[in-house]
Amino acid sequence: MIEPIPLSRLLQTRAAILICYPRYDADEAERRLRELRQLGVDAIELRGRHLVCGLPTLGKGHVGIVVGAKGAEGLMALKIRRVDADRSSLEEEASHQRMANTVDVGPKLVRASANFILMELIEGNYLTEWIESLEPSEVPRLNKVLTDLLCDARRLDFIELDHGELSNARRHVIVAGDVPCIIDFESASTHRKVSNVTSIVHYLYFNRLVRGTIERLMTLPQPNPILKALRKHKAEPTDGSFFELFRALGLDS
Fold first, then answer.
1. Which of 69, 173, 212, 252 could form an SS bridge with 127, CB 3.0 to 4.6 Å?
2. How far apart are CA 93 and CA 79, in angstroms?
């Protein structure tokens, strides 16, 4: 059982480094502790596969660290801005995540501040790892997840929010209960041309390693028809061109 660490004693534990990573500063840690209390966080939980200073976390990137957190809403995920991050606030990322939520994409945002994003906890496997766990008899499950993922990417395209990382979606899609969830909106933008559908198709069907993983389970269409349908959808992103892309991918529309 994972034991929560109450905020009242967090700074007296090894986990204190996580809220002020990678350079611990006592004054900054106290400020961030007050910020956490204002967000309604009561405790953090050390859980997940990624290690930071030997401590289990849900995720680690160039901008932040993700840990478990407890509050009035129950168990959640908490993204913590690194003190050496290339941005002074997580509020723009939170805004993009909130925007994605309006079309039912991404973990549900609970609250956010300059240094923290409190959100729904999504526990599952990264997309490629989930695919690797399947047997050929489970191709219908794979088709459903790929279909749902393409539809989520299209929803982001529709609201003109480009995720920015789906061309290498290795750690940006989690599958939980056969439902894919696009995570981590730190590179998202509304100021560039959207390419979410294009990016995820390229990752799944043109990345040699990912394509090989899928081909272990089923035969994939040849690249040329996919590229033709993708170019058509990119030039004219209508329902019709999207369904044509589905057919070119061998997915049910």
1. 173
2. 11
Residue 164 phi/psi, 5-degree rounding, is 95, -10
Domain identity same for 133 and 200: yes
Domain harbouring 169, CATH code: 1.10.510
Residues 231 and 138 in one domain: yes
Residue 168, Cβ neighbours under 10 Å: how many? 12
Phi/psi at 129 (nearest 5 deg)? -65, -40
Residue 221, preceding bond cis, omega within 30 degrees? Answer: no
**Residues 111, 129: one domain?**
no
141 by Cβ neighbours in 10 Å (0-12 / 13-18 / 19+) ranks as middle
Residue 38, domain extent: 5-119
Report pLDDT digits (tens) over 120-150: 999 999 999 999 999 999 999 999 999 999 9
Q: Are 204 and 158 in contact (CB under 8 A)?
A: no
Name the token pair of 228: 């033709």
Cβ–Cβ under 8 Å, residues 99 and 73? no
Domains identified in the chain, total number: 2
Query: Same structural domain for residues 129 and 239?
Result: yes
Among the three residues 88, 119, 150, which one is the final residue of a domain in this structure? 119
Strand order through the sheet with 125-126: 125-126, 173-176, 179-182
